[in-house]
TrEMBL record:
Family statement: Belongs to the ABC transporter superfamily.
Name this protein carries in UniProt: Spermidine/putrescine ABC transporter ATP-binding protein
Superkingdom to which the source organism belongs: Bacteria
Domain ABC transporter as annotated: residue spans: 4-238
A Pfam short name: TOBE_2
GO-annotated cellular components: ATP-binding cassette (ABC) transporter complex, substrate-binding subunit-containing
Keywords in alphabetical order: ATP-binding, Cell membrane, Membrane, Nucleotide-binding, Translocase, Transport
Species the sequence originates in: Thioclava dalianensis
UniProt key word Flavoprotein: no
Transmembrane feature ranges: none
Any GO MF annotation of the entry: ATP hydrolysis activity
InterPro entries recorded: AAA+_ATPase (IPR003593), ABC_transporter-like_ATP-bd (IPR003439), ABC_transporter-like_CS (IPR017871), ABC_transpr_MalK/UgpC-like (IPR047641), Mo/tungstate-bd_C_term_dom (IPR008995), P-loop_NTPase (IPR027417), Transp-assoc_OB_typ2 (IPR013611)
Length: 358
């Protein structure tokens, strides 16, 4: 397995930038998700890595070897990369066994070694009993397992997955997530996984690159994206909650900066000396009768074990969790705590545009 490195990587189509100076390093054996709204450049980054497109500028290295850029271009067949598409891309007239054996045939691996490796890949993906079936005799989830086994069999340097679960129904998606997790644990493969489904990205990946308009906005572990978003776009796109403008009061507390948020002084964590916004997650809101910030309940949804409330507070929509049901129109007191603040003066416009386009 190998590390992947993107340096100042750009791609334009007819003058329009699809990727804009991407810099990122993915460690050998790491599971990384590319997450972002439609058209943000996820698939373009994957296709450049696979070698289906030439970069307009910048470099791609796989395991230290430059495969694109600086006057070099290594063809897709020579990059030793496995690819899993949402459409499975299986050979319809070959059996499961022959589909999985195909990459080994192309590499002229002797028959006995071929059979052993295919058997191992089928067993690892739970397909041992299906070796002689044709793709048309398999379910969607089973076909996607064949595509995974076909990647696994030639021990690629990295595996690229382009929305591999997009064609499956919800319950199957959850069980296939387990298959990907197991596949990653057993193979230690470097994996780059494109999705626009944030729950999939947060559940599966070691780190998530959140993209918008051809740029990586933040590249971090799921819990960091949630707790410490870098800007309005990430705060609004990942996880539940609100993004609200904030003004520094000039005071600092030992626990953080004191910011004026919705008219209240709130101690907030921040990496920026002069933040402009805060991310308010549901966990940062306590409902208290005596709290000075008043909010009106606009929606109440039972989630099992708790209710999700939407609240209108000073014309902002906040999200809170409550053990008790609340009546629509009811007024509640809101106490804010443990907020994360960041500097992004133009961010709300970017976020609104991205959410409108999505
Ligand atoms: N072959 C192409 N020719 C022209 N424009 C392209 C081409 N491929 C992609 N684009 C444009 O580049 C931008 C990024 O596209 P890309 O497919 O990478 O987005 P994406 O994030 O994968 O979106 P989706 O989630 O909808 O698949 C889009 O504006 C798209 O229209």
């Amino acid at each position: 397995m190998a590390e992947l490195t993107f340096s100042d990587l750009s791609k334009t189509f007819g003058g329009a930038p699809a990727l804009d100076a991407i810099n990122a390093q993915i460690a050998s054996g790491e599971f990384v998700a590319l997450l972002g709204p439609s058209g943000c450049g996820k698939t373009t980054l994957l296709r450049l890595t696979a070698g289906f497109e030439h970069p307009s500028a910048g470099k791609i290295r796989i395991g230290g070897e430059t495969v694109a850029g600086g006057g070099r271009f290594v063809s897709p067949e020579d990059r030793e990369i496995g690819i899993v598409f949402q459409s499975y891309a299986l050979w319809p007239h070959k059996s499961v066994f022959d589909n999985v054996a195909y990459p080994l045939e192309v590499r002229r691996i002797p028959r006995a070694a071929r059979q052993a490796r295919v058997a191992e890949a089928l067993s690892l993906t739970g397909l041992g009993a299906f070796a002689n079936r044709m793709p048309s005799q398999l379910s969607g989830g089973q076909r996607q397992r064949v595509a995974l086994a076909r990647c696994l069999v030639f021990e690629p340097r990295a595996v690229l997955l382009d929305e591999p679960l997009a064609n499956l129904d919800l319950s199957l998606r959850a069980s296939m997530q387990d298959v990907f997790r197991l596949f990653h644990r057993r193979t230690g493969a470097t994996m780059l996984y494109v999705t626009h489904d944030q729950s999939e990205a947060l559940a599966l990946a070691d780190r998530v690159a959140v993209m918008n308009a051809g740029k990586i906005r933040q590249f971090a572990a799921p819990e960091i994206l949630y707790r410490e978003p870098a800007d309005c776009f990430v705060a609004g796109f990942v996880g539940d909650g609100a993004v609200v403008s904030a003004r520094i009061t000039g005071r600092a507390d030992h626990a953080g900066l004191v910011l004026n948020v919705l008219g209240q002084d709130v101690v907030s964590r921040s990496a920026a000396p002069e933040p402009s916004h805060v991310s308010i997650r549901p966990e940062s809101i306590t409902l208290a009768d005596d709290a000075p910030l008043r909010a009106r309940v606009t929606s109440c949804t039972y989630l099992g074990g708790r209710f999700r409330l939407e609240l209108d507070a000073a014309s902002e929509t906040l999200v809170a969790f409550s053990r008790q049901r609340a009546a629509i129109g009811e007024t509640v007191g809101v106490r804010l705590h443990d907020l994360w603040a960041f500097r992004d003066p133009e961010g709300e416009v970017v976020l609104q545009k991205a959410l409108a386009d999505a």
